[in-house]
Amino acid sequence: MIGVGKIKQYSNVLDKPLSKGKQEVSLSAFSFLFSELVQYNQTQVDNIAELERRLEDAGYSVGARVLELLCHREKGNRRETRLLGILSFVHSTVWKVLFGKVADSLEKGTEHEDEYMISEKELLVNRFISIPKDMGTFNCGAFVAGIVRGVLDSAGFPAVVTAHFVPVEGQQRPRTTILIKFAEEVLRREARLG
Amino acid sequence: MAAIYSLFIINKSGGLIFYKDYGSAGRMDTNDSLRVASLWHSMHAISQQLSPTVGCSGIELLEADAFDLHCFQSLTGTKFFVVCEPGTQHMEALLKVIYELYTDYVLKNPFYEMEMPIRCELFDLNLSQALQKDRVALLGR
After folding, report:
1. pLDDT single digits (tens) A155-183
2. How crowded is the C-beta side of A176, counted as CA atoms within 13 Å?
3. Which locations, inside or outside the cell, does it occupy (chain A) (predicted)?
4. What is the pLDDT of residue A136?
5. Chain A residues with CB inside 8 Å of B121's CB?
6. pTM for the complete prediction?
7. Left, alpha or beta for A183 (phi > 0: left; psi -120 to 50: alpha)?
8. Cα distance from A127 to chain B (closest Cα, Å)?
9. Which of B81, B102, B123, B129 has the fewest CB atoms lying closer than 10 Å?
10. How far apart (Å, rounded) are the C-alpha atoms in residues B30 and B36?
């Protein structure tokens, strides 16, 4: 699915130079492709939870690759070891490269130590999508949650990432929050590092 | 003042997939709107055959005493038509805008089944915004 597609111009893909590439992709083209991805997965599953999981898995593959690419292009092959470092990397760099802008906000959860939230007024992937009423709280932003999980996991910060709609007063459309819940070991390591 | 009475969208087989009425005059119930839609679909097709000009793509404007009907047919056969007050300007442009909204918020929606009635929240939202803007622009002139 996503991530599987090679343009073979060189005999060995490793010889091909890592160029900057085209910075912009048509939003319409992406929307149609993403719509097809959702529709395809809908035919393969029986329930909504399963559909969300599949979208997340698709995003996971993207996240893992994006981390490798951005570490090389943007950060000169340096690795983030601190929690805040990797979070601001996701919030700014990853979002900038994928969606053309930094995420709206990054917050620390008030109730639990291990929760962080990245909020966005409207996720790019959800721009043209209207969820039917009978699908309840399903959010196609599960794909983006998967991307974030892929980045964090590959960077050594295992976490459970989910996407939620949060209703906002005065606005018809709810804002989207990506909730990141880090694993125990991450917090212990962070505490050790001081 | 120039006003739109109703908006219809019909699929390529003539079935009504979207109906919205805006004026008190000409308000009709579901059955009537379905009937009008299929009536228009057939008339549009017949007019294409009957037309004396070569390469005619069907009726674009119908002018009557109490209303005007502007119709836009996309390349895929989906028809957008709006019933409005006689003499309303810029309906062609409005229909093009509605077509763009359709391609964006209906066709890119993975939960929309082709040729089925449109039940997309974003489409309704943006449609009313576009018509508001249009109304303001018309009143401004």
Report:
1. 999 999 999 988 888 888 888 999 999 99
2. 22
3. Endoplasmic reticulum; Golgi apparatus, cis-Golgi network
4. 81
5. 130-131
6. 0.84
7. beta
8. 8
9. B129
10. 10
